[in-house]
Amino acid sequence: MKASDLFVRSLEHEGVEFIFGIPGEENLDFLESLRESKIKLILTRHEQAAGFMAATYGRLTGKVGVCLSTLGPGVTNFVTSGAYAQLGAMPVLMISGQKPIKKSKQGQFQIIDVVEMMRPLTKFTKQIVHGNNIPVLVHEAMRIAREERPGAVHLELPEDIAAEECDTQPYDQVYFRRPQADGRTIDKACEMIQQAKMPLILIGAGANRNRTSEALKKLIDKTGMYFFDTQMGKGVVDERVPTFLGTAALSAEDYLHCAIDRADLIINVGHDVIEKPPFFMSPGGTKVIHVNYFSAKVDEVYFPQLNVVGDIADSIDRLADKTEKCKNWDGAYFQRVKDEVEEHVKKGSDDKRFPIIPQHLVAEIRKTMPDNGIIALDNGVYKIWFARNYKAYQSNTVLLDNALATMGAGLPSAMGAKIVHPDRKVMAICGDGGFMMNSQELETAVRLKMDLVVVILRDDAYGMIKWKQAGMGFQDFGLDYGNPDFVKYAESYGAHGHRVKSSDHLSSLLNECVNGSGVHIIEVPVDYSENEKVLIDELKSKTCIL
Q1: Which of 31, 133, 168, 376 has CB 3.0 to 4.6 Å from 414, enough for a Cys bridge?
Q2: What does each C-alpha distance from 315 to 183, 210, 227, 244 come to in angstroms?
Q3: b/e map of 466-488 (b: 16 or more CB within 10 Å)?
Q4: Average pLDDT score over the chain
């Protein structure tokens, strides 16, 4: 068969459902092969957005998201979303076209060395030089993308290779189970837990798997241990559980860090140093058990005393079977910290000043979204507010990027989530800066007839950097901009545009849009004056309760 047909057949054998992207002339053979396939092409308006959608598909399903671009400027637009997937441990295959490699009449027009460009951003990158190599390369790329730690891979399919005839067949998927941790290591972990007086569990991004969620709930229920999570670990265990302390949205000095500092052992489940640190270790301080698919990457702030390496769900399940509730564990202090955190988080939730303050916005969105509703956050200071104040009830219902932390991912990520979960409520939450970086994807969402809500927090500036600028004592400079009329902008794409006119208007408008049909854009004027007071001044003056 033709090489492009073989490529598509190989993707089908790997279980691919969607390809996100923008084809170019170098992809036309591949596009024709895709036309007859059961794989659905999701045509986007920018390759970066296609990569974000594919990464979110991988994040939510555990399968490999696939995205497609042409050569040159098409594939360079994959750089940010490829890095997003790689740092965030989201399995993605990026496919790009290329000019003919056997004979070309166009010299170096649009040609860059894509494989070398992708090498530092991916787990695997390769140019296909013969059609018969396609099945093994696709199979290997998909395996590498899925294998822990998941990430991005890339294959380049030149135009002349795509058109040649082949005589090979696709590979079938291979059954695979992750290896288990060594029994003696599990015993050592149990011994450390039993000897601890004030242990805590930390849940990180790598624990965001269905089986891991069940195992952690079992361990917490059985032992009564208190726990907290990272930004990308939110919802792995329902944050309404009585022993949940909070989210480590800041690296240090938050209220829950009083508990972290008092703990004598932290069982760190699924954490990766690529995510912003949830706490800092110090020599002679709190001991840490690292439970993950891979051993800890040691640096000056993270150097655990024990690595439990293997399938996380299996490791936690075995720990739960061996570790009983112990009378020596003292949860009284942790409960006092929890009460302090809860009281602090509630402050401002009913404050109806206008423009809207973040605490009130978070509280109203939490009231509006159902238990399994998904919010996808772009990057800005509001991400910290949502991480601290918004309780996640289920795994992967708060999608944020605490690894690359790129702007522009919020809307495409929400669209990817809606494609994976068409029957669930999905909301993108973006600053005006991040939204405008991929706002063209509104057309894609409307074309796909999505039911989607996009909340735009308007402050007419790169607000987080402006806050940091002021905090460093610098003058206000270089960070203000203008914005379109977001209501008219939404309507120009065929979406529904709304503007919050008062604090009382916010709640009713959120409910109307979340429960309505079509794409709804809600412009929310936001007041970030609470940032300094709540996230800096109050924390500086706090005293850890005795």
Answers
A1: 376
A2: 9, 14, 17, 21
A3: bbebeeeeeeeeebeeebeebbe
A4: 93
CB neighbour class for 423 (10 Å; exposed up to 12, middle 13-18, buried from 19): exposed
Q: How far apart are CA 234 and CA 395, in angstroms?
A: 7
Segment among 252-256, 290-294, 311-315 with least mean pLDDT: 252-256
At residue 246, the 3 state secondary structure works out as: strand
Peptide bond between residue 355 and the one before it cis (omega within 30 degrees of 0): yes
d(CA 434, CA 80): 14
- What whole-number distance in Å separates Cα of residue 180 and Cα of residue 167? 39
Per the CB < 8 A criterion, the answer to whether 263 and 331 are in contact is no
CATH number of 3-163: 3.40.50.970
Q: How far apart are CA 303 and CA 175, in angstroms?
A: 34
455, β-bridge pairs: 429, 522
The reported pLDDT for the residue numbered 111 is 83
3-state secondary structure of 147: coil
Instruction: Decide if 442 contacts 409 (C-beta within 8 A).
Output: no
* Helix (H), strand (E) at residue 306: strand 306-309
- Asked whether residue 327 carries a pLDDT value surpassing 60, the answer given is no
Query: Are 3-163 and 347-536 equal in CATH topology?
Result: yes
pTM exceeding the 0.85 threshold for the entire prediction = yes
b/e map 304-324, b = 16+ CB within 10 Å: bebbbbbbbbbbbbbbbeebe
The answer, yes or no, to whether residue 521 has pLDDT greater than 60, is yes
How crowded is residue 533: how many other Cβ atoms within 10 Å of its Cβ? Answer: 10
Nearest to 53, CA basis, from 22, 11, 98, 76: 22
| Domain boundaries of the chain, sorted by first residue | 3-163, 183-340, 347-536
Tokens matching residue 495:
């979406």
Whether 85 and 151 have beta carbons less than 8 Å apart is answered as yes
Query: Distance between CA 262 and CA 198 in Å, rounded?
Result: 8
Residue 44: what residue type? T
C-alpha 234/C-alpha 398 separation (Å) is 7
Compare 330 and 198 and report the one with higher pLDDT: 198
DSSP string, 496-545: EEEE--SHHHHHHHHHHHHTSSSEEEEEEEB--THIIIIIIIHHHH----
Tell me how far apart the alpha carbons of residues 265 and 188 are, in angstroms, rounded to a whole number: 13
- Would you say residue 179 has pLDDT above 70? yes
The candidate with the shortest Cα–Cα distance to 65, out of 77, 78, 74, is: 78
pLDDT tens sequence across 205-247: 999 877 899 999 999 999 999 999 999 999 999 999 999 999 9
Angstrom distance (rounded) from CA 444 to CA 417: 14
Query: For 183-340, which CATH superfamily applies?
Result: TPP-binding domain (3.40.50.1220)
Residue with tokens 């400027």: 73
